[in-house]
């Protein structure tokens, strides 16, 4: 009997969806706008993330050692830093390697090369380059290195930590990144709530047309669930169809915007992002559409079912 | 079958719709309720359907107080009643077949039973050729016959016809009343509310007259007297 009821509900909902063609088209289009906003937020989020990631990756700190510090001691510190969760990457450069890099970098500059030859010995220190997962972690990483008991008193062999010189700049950048992320979330939520409310009202209006019918259904003894069922099916159809339309629409849109977003310095081509993450994006958009359709219909019918 | 026990209904704005009504309707009776607009006829009907709650008193269907029924029991109870309205209240986006089938589906009937009973009941109201039409393709009289077919398809114990002829011409009015009489003759209790003097006088059945929320006359073979 339950299976028969489910079949009837699905059939009745699907038939109503087709027979109320104009209302269905209007509701589907409004929901397409909502889902487009949601999908756009996904792309804006990815662009923001990519841009901030780019900025983050350009922030690093170097730890320079006294010449008394052996490579083995530096490697021990390197290993300890690698174990920290807030450290994204870490690399050791010996003083010889630093000199070679310096020479390569200034190969054509005779003045610098002459000065280097004049000094005679290698003036560059061995160093460790650290990139943190989050710029706000540099403070604690710097403090960790400076601790007396780290890596067998290597702290005493640390000549300087570049963070301490660039602290203000890194902290400011860190705050800007944090604020950008928070602002992004707030703006996303704002648009999401607005678009959801618009969808709720559209579905409610679509069902308002049937409010007298709902009262009659109640009076012929139909249970609340049996009345709600077909409307929920209609909501699912609104959500599913509009999510498919949204996904199709975003193919040419991202194709067109892709090169532009890359040229803006975000480091992300939205078209590549769309294709590369299509399954996840499709899953989010379709499930969001269907859930929104179900909830909107359920609440709208509930309002008229009180007889 | 139905018993109103000192029922009063006072709305929030202090309007008294029913004033200490006591009424008993037996099984297989055909009872007409007459009265001017605002006399309390619709409130009385809504009480029987469980749409309105009495402020004082109780309404019984057989031995059950209708207003103590839980949701599911109320649904089951409503399936024992067939309702016909003045404005037909058919489901506009469903065909004649689907309108009647819906009432059967709501009562939990199977597909095969529906496929047999719907055409049969439409033949009874002489609408066998309109089975796939939508309500907007039917005349007023035809719509009301569909409403009656929907009301009787579950073989209810009681038919409530609330001003069923209000929107119909005399010929259709006569036909609808004849169908209701036939339903009553077959053993179903009928409660009819109407303003139509000709209908009441021709029926020669029990007439309950209401005025300002009270029952002022209750005649076994009554006439339309206001």
Would you give an account of this structure?
The complex is a heterodimer of chains A (307) and B (226). Chain A contains eleven helices and four strands. Chain A has 307 residues and is of the alpha+beta class. A four-stranded antiparallel β-sheet of chain A has the order 2-3-1-4. The longest helix of chain A has 47 residues, at 162-208. The two termini of chain A are 26 Å apart. Chain B has 226 residues and is of the alpha/beta class. Chain B contains seven helices and ten strands. Chain B has helices at 41-49, 71-78, 96-106, 111-124, 140-152, 170-185, 197-203; strands at 2-10, 16-25, 30-34, 56-61, 64-65, 81-85, 158-162, 189-193, 206-211, 214-219. In chain B, strands 6-7-8-3-9-10 form a six-stranded mixed β-sheet, sandwiched between helices. The longest helix of chain B has 16 residues, at 170-185. The radius of gyration of chain B is 17 Å and the shape is globular. The A-B interface holds A 1, 4, 8, 16, 19-20, 210, 212-213, 215-224, 226, 307 and B 49, 51, 71-72, 75-79, 81, 83, 89-93, 102-103, 105-108, 110-111, 150.
Overall shape of chain B: globular
What is the rounded Rg of chain A? Answer: 31 Å
Relative strand content of chain B:
25-35%
| Low-pLDDT regions of chain B | none
Give the total of beta strands of chain B: 10
Helical coverage of chain B, percent range: 25-40%
Mean pLDDT of chain B: 91
In whole angstroms, the N-to-C terminal distance of chain B is: 27 Å
Counted beta strands of chain A: 4
The major β-sheet of chain A equals:
4 strands, antiparallel
Largest sheet of chain B: 6 strands, mixed
Helical segment count of chain A:
11
What structural category arises from helix and sheet content of chain B?
Answer: alpha/beta
Given the structure, what is the number of helices of chain B? Answer: 7
**Radius of gyration from the alpha-carbon trace of chain B, in angstroms:** 17 Å
Strand order of the largest sheet of chain A: 2-3-1-4
